[in-house]
Design a protein that fits this description.
globular, Immunoglobulin-like, five-stranded antiparallel sheet, five-stranded mixed sheet, mainly beta, 2 helices
Length: 253
Amino acid sequence: MKRCAIVSAAVAALAIGAVRADEWGTIKGRFVFGGDAPVAAALKADKDVEVCGQHKLVAEELVVGADKGVANVVVFVRDKGVKVKPGIEGKDPVVLDNKGCRFDPHVAFVQVGQPFVIKNSDTVGHNSNIASTKNPPSNSLIPAGGDTKLTFSSDEPVPAAVTCNIHPWMKGWVVVRPNPYAAVSKADGTFEIKDVPAGEVELQFWHEKAGYLAEMTIGGKAEKTSKGKKKVAVAASGTDLGEIVLAPGVFQK
């Protein structure tokens, strides 16, 4: 009886340890431009001018808000085989729209196997040419009001560029990852990755104009990284990286 009690206690202790191990936290932060906010250059619509010329088109390779928030910075958990919280895998379709003669969103995030819809809300035809490397390249002609659907069977090592051969000023990106642990910073520079397993993970940071972010100032401390990689301790209560300042020189490739 005594031995059974000891074994039962040990099993209970292991069970409690397993429950505590399955804790999840949120990683968040805000990217800030470390200088005067640049003015986005205007783009000229020289095709389908009667439609595309109605929109105020600007270059989106570096979008900085009036509050100096940097949009479209990609952050993802790099660790292979990272444990994923049950039930949060991407199932709903991700939509990339040809709208206003630009790609909306400018940077889309989709998981391997998750439905991906490319639609066209404009009244002129577009094509969406995805320059993937591990997945078969896709070049879909999408009529006005139409859409096409595809899925990615493999993750992409770097974000894949999306272009429209009909309207050459149009450019966007698709981030394809094997799990839900990725985010794209919003217009105010903020990002959030939810339900990351508690413990240490390795993040990777990328921006279309800078590439992998090799230099950042996080919490007032200047840091240099190898290809934008940084290990972060994730607490169950959440981990806030605070302001991540990106110096203007980072974007002068």
